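Customer ticket, subject: "Can you confirm the structure for Transposase InsH N-terminal domain-containing protein?"

Message body: Hello, I'm evaluating your service for our small team and ran a test protein. I'd like someone to confirm that this is what the system normally returns, since I don't have a reference to compare against.
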Amino acid sequence: MIKTSLFADQEREAKLNQLGDALQVMEQHVDFAALAAEVDLAAPRPSRERGGRPPFPTELMVRVLLIQQLFDPALISRTAGSLLTFWLYGGMHG
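Agent reply: Thanks for trying us out. I re-ran your input and got the following:
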């Protein structure tokens, strides 16, 4: 039987805080803006004259690629609703 708690959100947040945020640690060690600029030089984006959906920012794609290489994909799928969503939409400055 699954125990439910009125404070499940707070308990989950406290547990994540205890584990530490690997994304903040990566931010201290990797200059994602410089890396994205190098990727743009090596593989320029095609012209958007014909329209279509705008591409995702290169810096975002570099971040996702690094996370995929460093962490287990199963872990990413389990935490996608929390850490990655916050990081991609709430925690990324730019």
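A couple of notes from the result: The chain has a mean pLDDT of 75. The radius of gyration is 17 Å. Feel free to reply with more questions.
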